[in-house]
Amino acid sequence: MAQWDRLGQLPAAFKQQLLELYDRDSLPMDVRHYLAVWIENQELRAARDHDLAVVLLQVLLENLDIQHSRFVQEESFLLQHNIRRYKQNFQRYLDEPCDLARTILWFLEKENEILMSADLTEQVQFLQVEPEIMETSSKQDLERKMAGLRNEMQCMEHTMICLEEQQDEFDFKYQTHKMEDEAVKNDQIKVLQGLVNRLDECRKSTLSDLNKLLDRTEDLVDILVKKELVEWQRRQQKTCIGAPDDVCLDQLEKWFTCVAVCLFQVREFLSKLEELVGKVSYENDPVKAQKPALQRRADTVLKDLLKSSFVVETQPSMPQGKGPLVLRTNVQFSVKTRSKILIELSHLIRYRRFNVLGTITKALNMVESQSGGMVADFRHLNLKEQKSGGSGKGVSDIPLSVTEELHVICFDTVFELKGLSVGLQASSLPVVIISNSSQQQSAWASILWFNMLSQDTKDLMFFANSPAATWPQFGEMLSWQFLSATKRGLNDAQLEMIAHRLFGNQMNYDTCTVAWSKFSKENTPDTFWVWFDGILVMVKTFLEDLWREGLIMGFVSKGKEKSLLKKKQSGTFLLRFSESVIGGITFSWFVILSILGQLNVKTVQPFTKDDLIQIPFHEIIRNFQIFEPGNIPENPLLYLYPNIPKDKAFGKYYSEKSGGTVNNCVSKYFFCSLHTYFKNLPKSLIYIYYCCMVQLY
């Protein structure tokens, strides 16, 4: 099924993400929809090949002309207009066609991330049955409390009506009493006194009910603010670093709205009491005594709720970035809140300072919301560093690197409704601001580390004394990186190999800890994160399908590799990531040397992106040959561990289903011989020579 068709079948929450993705100018959703098949079949190399990118742009413009002609025939005036406008916009890529290819590639990758998130959510729901039952029970209990609150509000409305009717009865009889003669007045005094007593009791009862109503709302606000909102904020932190959690705000918004509506009604009830007291009052009137305290209490609870309801729904991110929360100066980024908003960048005085450029004030509106909520969506913001003194850099007493400096983007707004005015503020999660793309890897490491360990999202000095991560926390975070990038996380055996690399041989790794300096900060080019991220980028770029199907064992040590292979038949091989070459993958195979009967495990030099750009890894496995005695080339790779025939495992990826031609044999022969005997030469050079030799044959 085409990727676009799959996206159309997603649940509502993920369709919302898709709508937000295409809520941009770079690639209109109409173009993505009508040219879906063509877009998904494009050559991805166009992003780095100028000639291919030129062809891509020309074909795109031609396809838009075809669509325009079709809409002319169908008399679809609006679509004609839109397609013509889209074509004019795309012509801005004539000077830099590779930018268009990179933009299309970025959107396809983001679509794939949405699909993976949907699949992961489904898997999590399937695997975590018991936690889901507990969570459902908690939600049902909260729903019951909300229903109880709404029921009490209806009862309170009836009580206020009864109170007003009772007061009207007293007022009517009292006004009538004043117009009667003295003899009749004396007879009516006892009746009026009885009515006053009843009115007094009714007012006391009403005030008591309002106190109980505020007790219930305070309890619900406490649950919403201190539990539900905190849990949502933590889920949002985790999703920023790859966790498959649900961060849809719809349900939380409904609960907040329900309680806020009730509290506004309480304020209306109190206003009504004040109005009634203005008409009829008496000595020791309970409303005069208790109403001010109730008013302060209701306003305090409502303000607390409103202040907590203003959140950053979509964290700051820039197109084609490694992940959210890493921003680069002079590169546009977007961020979305749920309210007239003023945005400003908050920072520590000793850190670098930045100006936010772009449209930094927006009015509360529903146009930019797909769910009916009130939002402000900032799409085209830029950061520009302020110059400080002569050097242009801030000064810090604590030696933190640029990628350890944390900043937050603050949003301020004023909520005004029915005489209530409340200043609200929401802050983004801490962001790292870089000035060069070479800092992306280190910046993303900081974002991972902070959001893995800290639940205090205001702790901008976190890296001044960063805590260590326990192995369970660390391993889970590593697995999330593969989950979010490839739809397949790390299994226990793979995590154990990583733990062994970090801590050596241990009976139990759960008590082991990883320091920040060990993860990323060491002043060496091969920190753990550089090694791990190099593998992740390689898998995402070149090996995603093989990894997703479980064909790559990946994280396995050399010692473990030998012990596994020596238990299998000759010709069994496995694929693992290099422990010494950044972004390298290799394969090892088990062979029995027939002359001496020796058991041996052989390994080739790791392949890196320089090799995989030239030839797909499955073709390397398919065509790999070594010299046997008598100079006979032979492929030693027969069974993928544990015992899957090689062609069964990789056959569907082969570029040609048929084989056995002379040219095929010769190409296999030369590639294996060059690779085996000229290990010191760059494999890209070997590959070029190999291609030349194939042409000779």
List the defining traits of the structure above.
697 residues, alpha+beta, five-stranded mixed beta sheet, four-stranded antiparallel beta sheet, 19 strands, 55% helix, elongated, DNA-binding, Signal transducer and activator of transcription, SH2_dom_sf, phosphoprotein, SH2 domain
Explain the overall architecture:
It is found in: Cytoplasm; Nucleus. Belongs to the transcription factor STAT family. Keywords: Activator, Coiled coil, Cytoplasm, DNA-binding, Nucleus, Phosphoprotein, SH2 domain, Transcription, Transcription regulation. The protein is α+β, with helices and mostly antiparallel strands. The protein has 22 helices and 19 strands. A 5-stranded mixed beta sheet has the order 15-14-13-18-19. A 4-stranded antiparallel beta sheet has the order 1-3-7-5, with no helix packed on it. Helix 5 packs across helix 7 (97-127) and helix 8 runs parallel beside helix 10. It is elongated and about 135 Å long. The relative contact order is 0.05. The model is unreliable at 340-350, 658-679 and 684-697 (pLDDT under 50).
